[in-house]
Amino acid sequence: MFKKLWWSSKPFVWTEEEAAARLQISEAEVRALVEDCKLTAARVGGHFRFTDRDLSQFISHAGSLGQPKRKKLAAAVASAILLVSVTVWAFPLPVGQWGDQLRSQMWFSSAPTQLPPLDTAVGFHRTLTSEESAASGTAENLSLYMESLHNSTTRYPWPLYVELNTNHGNGADGVGIYSRLRTSGSGWGTGIHSEAIIRGIGTNIGYNAEMSPMVDGGRTIGLNIQAKNGYGAEIANKWSQEAINLQTDPNVGWDVGIKFDGARVNNGIHFTPASSGQRAIWVQGNYTVGLDMGQLPIRMNAGTPIQLEETSQITISFNQTAQRIEFKNGNMLLGYISALTDASGGKMN
């Protein structure tokens, strides 16, 4: 709805100086019109900003000190231009440029109610109106679309490329791409979303990270997921649910949930001494085998029991001091098997 005729170069948002020049009056007179509620504007900082539509409607309906009111003939010409523009959009547009003249800072609506404190070179801002929010479909500030349909083996199609080259010290954060989601509704939301619609036979990945340490020291992490304790002064001590969640549609699934594909890993899964909770690994569901170790051993410290039922009372453990395998019901010793090399056996109740 914000596109202009493709041959137009007028900006969508006008400054006070530009509006005064268009209306052929002073900037003070422009501000007076706004304060008298005769001209619609959005306040951005200590200045007013005007949409092209609001300025055009002012000239058309009210006239101004410098611009005469548009006559019906002008309206007829505008209607004819609109008809031509609709006809042009119905056919493929020529290669080249069309639409609004982009500027480093643009508001595609009234000024947003809240802007983050960004030191940005280019900013496109938009607040959806109630009519736009009631419509169906997606709404974007910036869209990139690219096609590569010639099955090339030497060309890499990358619609978006971002590179950060930085040398910042401890305490500063370097981020190539930053995403923040703020939500207060009940709908599904995500900071970053990826979809792969696969009709080829190659390998396709939703998210790919390639880590290349070039020096000794430091720490390299492929994927880091944090549960934050509130944001700023907002409510704290609220737990998150799943750090990683695997889902499937009906009648389809994953062959492998997590796979170490020929990777050299010193510790496949490591729970540090500082980690805590109820269960380190929890297996439920309908599986043929809960834990298949193949030819690999299961190891634990002496004295750690193997619990044989859900109440944790019937256990098997190794008593390192007595050098024997003990069977217990709670704290009651049911029997044992001696682990001494010269032992003849053990004792069972």
SSE layout:
Elements: E1 13-14, H1 16-23, H2 27-35, E2 42-44, E3 47-51, H3 52-61, H4 72-89, E4 105-107, E5 123-125, H5 130-134, E6 306-307, E7 314-319, E8 324-329, E9 332-338, E10 346-348
Parallel strand pairs: 4-5
Antiparallel strand pairs: 1-3, 2-3, 6-7, 7-8, 8-9, 9-10
List the secondary-structure elements in sequence, H or E. Answer: EHHEEHHEEHEEEEE
How far do the termini sit from each other? 85 Å
Structural class: little secondary structure
> What is the oligomeric state here?
single chain
Tell me the strand percentage band: 5-15%
**Neighbour order of strands in the largest sheet:** 6-7-8-9-10
Q: What is the number of strand segments?
A: 10
**Whole-number radius of gyration?**
34 Å
Mean pLDDT: 83
Overall, the morphology is elongated
Number of helices: 5
Helix content: 10-25%
Major β-sheet profile: 5 strands, antiparallel
Low-confidence stretches: 1-9, 64-94
